[in-house]
């Protein structure tokens, strides 16, 4: 049967149960479900939610208010399963798990892939972890306990233990028979790992290659010998970079002796890339998690310390201004113009900072090219500085009728943009070398440099030039 015949023969979709992606989780739909739950009409709520994908069910629960979630989950008993929990926001999931007995959590974890089960159990309190693990099947418990021995955010926590590995002396027919007869295969896999007698990975075979090859073909003849192996203790961010760089669909994870212990698939890496990108963007703003479901107390603790650090940098800038108090009193227009110099310089520094932090995070910036990258940012800053300096100089001269003031602010703007661009490149590199996270602290130091230098350059040049009467 041709592909077109198969499509024509497919049963039509039931319009009453089908739900277009654009219609999912609209406010009216969420309100209908919650109203049904409030009215005690669990059957209607279940009928509405039944067609949803597990990820959409997880989103539905997250959209409900905190005090509505318990009733919603009870009404959707049977629908809120392991697949839904795996897709759920960490904070929302923790709240739901707190309401379950250890045996219930163990049952749900046993239905998940190992990596998803580990993600749930690792967030529990230590005594809760022990209770859940005691209630699990021995094989599942052993796999999760092993995963928990690896560092957080490492390949060992991320990997799945369920994989397909075959000996290198097998033929294609044996592999196909094994795949058809075994009842305990991984649910999703795209390639088969080929291992030596000592269980070291020696190659991989794509399913498409296996299915197109004659049964008597040795696996060793069709396998791809070049492969990307992931050490079990590798940081998940480095794992994501390898998947991105080499366009991997899955990769073998090996222990310290090189034995195959698990695999990582691209669907898990997509989540990691999203998490790491969001984390870096939030850290540049002084926010650790930035999750709307995060408790208020935790958001407060994570943000206030950076506001306090910014307060200190603001005091440094204020100290610089205080040194030119007399000049500002004699020529009030300086107070109007000096925030422009500091603000534009801050934006220029933030641009260089964002590019540098991203380059560090993606391993584009290394010891071999860091100074070339710094010199590039300095050249960009010079060009930007000249352009903005000319524009602000001409503008101030025309508006205020003072060529001297136009020259002073132009020179100050040029100086501050060059300093800001240089600092935006150097500060993250210095922090990285010191062992600190550049995404966390760079913006605090950059703000201090651009504000202080902007005020110092503008007010200092105005005073030194004799512009102040």
From TrEMBL:
Its main location: membrane. The chain crosses the membrane at residues 333-360, 381-401, 407-431, 443-468. PROSITE patterns: CBS. It holds the Pfam family MgtE. Signal peptide: none annotated. Keywords: CBS domain, Cell membrane, Magnesium, Membrane, Metal-binding, Transmembrane, Transmembrane helix, Transport. Residues 1-24 are annotated as: Disordered. SUPFAM superfamilies: CBS-domain pair, MgtE membrane domain-like, MgtE N-terminal domain-like. Residues 223-279 form the CBS domain. The keyword Metal-binding applies. It comes from the Bacteria. One of its GO terms (molecular function) is metal ion binding. Homodimer. Belongs to the SLC41A transporter family. Acts as a magnesium transporter. This is Magnesium transporter MgtE.
